[in-house]
Amino acid sequence: MDWRKYYMEHTMTPEEAVMKIKDGNRVMFGHAVGEPIVFQRTMARLAERFHNVEVAHMVYLGNGEYLEPGMESHFRHNALFVGGKARKAIASNRADYTPAFFSDVPRMIRDNTLPVDVFAFTCSPPDQFGYVNMGLSCDYGYQAVRSAKTVIAEINPNMPVTFGETFVHVSQIDGFIQSWEPLPESKPAEISDAEKQIGKYVADLVKDGDCLQLGIGSLPDAICMFLGDKKDLGVHTEMISDGVIPLIDSGVINCVRKQTHTGRIVSTFLMGTRKLYDFVNQNPIIEMLPVDISNDPAEISKNDNVVSINSCVQVDLQGQVCAEAIGLRQISGIGGQMDFVRGANLSKGGRSIIAITSTTGNGKASKIVSTLELGGPVTTSRCDVNYIVTEYGVAQLRGKSLRERARALIAIAHPDFREELWQEYERRFDETRPTSTATGTQKKPVA
């Protein structure tokens, strides 16, 4: 086919593209930096023309015009991961949350558990062979392109070209709109002293040749700060951010000891600053794979010594982890935490780590609690949990009794909350607190 002719014939205005949506449709957006900025803005501007349209996606970095109060009769958001403005919309029952493992989203699209009428995403301009590139997000988008009834590509020259399962031929797309919008960026967060201490403890659990899963935020960046003396680290993750760039440049991360995708960093989406986007552009060390591959526990475990590093909202004295809600208030999502916890646990020599500051940001509440807040879901079960790390030490829970777990977790809780946790321990186990709380796994608490 003459792909250039096809491309020109199917290029349209944003208004024409948005009118492909019909009342009652499910519209899905590309994930994170793959969101179609102009498309969603135009959709919100023309809201009066639409009724009962569901808009589904995971992480969303835009302004969320369609989520504003008053849009309810036109658009209802179905969040597969909760953040930003979606939190307020869900809390006020103007939007919904669908619990899902990140790795399962493509399958739900493929088998029509979550059928998609219109999929809109941002990509690079077509190359000389007629392929656009999904760049920073292929995760569920790669499947949505193949399953959606209508596919709209927002062509943006700012989108970098990445290698892997990211190329889509123009013939698979029904409409093209043009955009020159700057890509959404996530600026590095300021790292606290407590997070630096956690970073040191986690780095002590990482060995030369390990294969890491890292995320975004101040804690992953703090951990990266203390990995500079390691050798031959690999990365198999769902996402990377700016924090890994110095480790790649210095050769600490080279992926040479990985058993699969040797020499390549496997990821499914990328989110950070323009520096990261420029770094990954046509960089052969980056291999982008759909999330049902990157986050498949069986695929993850093919590498030895996988170390998964995640965070959470609360850990109870049994070791149950809630990473997505405060009681019934949904503030986040499952994402890929369980995918990588299980993948790491299945890996030969693998370790899963949940790293948290011991208290909430204002210091008024402990994140280590006697029981999860009423209504709070268990994201990672007590049977899957392995290491819990705070700025006060490391608790290794795998293979430990409930009594041993409680003692280990209290020892790494903030001192201001240990007394009430010990009182719960005595009530629960009908046993006075031990004179020594050492279990052989905690680090010496910091001052």
Structure description:
- The chain has 447 residues and is of the alpha/beta class.
- 26% of the residues lie in helices and 19% in strands.
- The protein is built from 15 helices and 25 strands.
- The strands form seven sheets. The chain has a seven-stranded parallel beta sheet, sandwiched between helices. A six-stranded mixed beta sheet has the order 12-11-17-22-24-25, sandwiched between helices.
- Strand 24 and strand 25 form a beta hairpin.
- Helix 7 crosses helix 8.
- The radius of gyration is 23 Å and the shape is globular.
- The N and C termini lie far apart (69 Å).
- 53% of the residues are buried.
- The model has no long low-confidence stretch (mean pLDDT 94).
